[in-house]
Amino acid sequence: MPTTDWDVVILGAGPAGAALALALPDDCRVLLIDRPKPERTGIKIGESLPGAALRLLDELRLGPAFLAEPHLERVQSWQRWQTTVPHAVDPIRDPEGPGWHLDRARFEHWLRDHMHPRGRMLVETASAPSFDRRDGHWLIGIGIGNDRNAHRAPWLVDASGRYAKMSRLLGLPRWHGPALQCVHACYTVPSGDEDAANHLVADTDGWWYAVRLPGQTRMVALHTDPQHLHWRDLRTTGVWQAAVRQALPELDQSRWHLSNDIAVFPADSSGLDWTALRADQGLLVIGDAGLCFDPLSAQGLFHALASAVSASRVIRASGETSLHAWRRWQQEMCSVTNRYLMHINDAYRAPRHVADRRFWQTQQDGWASVVRAVTGYIERPAA
């Protein structure tokens, strides 16, 4: 079986994998391996980018092209979080700029489209690749139909999303936040509806989020406990519509029309124990595979780009600087994880008016447990 040599093999071609492929020099030989993408309807969750993302997109040489896309600039957010009284949060105060809401599926396709002119190879296969580490290189076997191809590279990058396929295959330890389920639906709103504000509400059995997206679309989501039986009833259109009206009475929903089925997916957070990685493994982990954010943080897509750019600096380094770059990357990932855990723990403790409800007690106890278990070692990466 012939073997093809690469500089980097990336497992996963979502936003993190595609961003890494774009961040590397054009003469870097890059192979991406991913499962075939099914045709999706509706909107993908994870549609927000802060203004700081533009610096990352500039590093990918995509800044002007991104600004030319039909994204919506983030505007004022109305929140009923710490109390039942709405208060405004204005992103214009962010020194990096207000940021954007975007069509997540379109954004991912856009990133992929920019890979091909730079010579990146993408192989889609429904079969699970095989992996082995020998003589400082990764050996990867890929089955396509009846054929099996071998590939070799000094660097392997796990960008396989929240399921972290490579990291789990290697038995790398992970921590897990409390269980969280997202129930969401998309609406078509009339052209005269100019309300572009976001809405965030701490409710008795979870929290609601409503956001305006490009293309006369509004997405509404409830994040709740998967053990709470009420979420199953919410998949019935009438029950869902009534719950949305009760949770978000400030929105005029009289002319909204459901544009897709009410969907449910897991939204809980998890992360890699970064201290379990070694510099001589030739392994990097980026995006959700390394740190899968709670949707409340609104940082998942930004982290996909940021962790990809950070990983590219490790791969670019050579000789003695390579070990130094890897250690700096590991410390950065530890620091990002630590700051995130402190922030999300505080965020779930903020709504005092619902603090005695089961959902909020479960989240608060769960995050407190994670913080105690993780932050003690996360600041002390291995040598």
Automatic annotation (TrEMBL):
InterPro entries attached to this UniProt entry: FAD-bd (IPR002938), FAD/NAD-bd_sf (IPR036188), Flavin-dep_Halogenase_NPB (IPR050816)
Coiled-coil region list: none
Residues annotated as domain FAD-binding: 6-309
Molecular-function GO terms, alphabetical: FAD binding
PANTHER family associated with the record: FAD-BINDING PROTEIN, SLR1998 PROTEIN
Protein name: FAD-binding domain-containing protein
Organism: Ahniella affigens
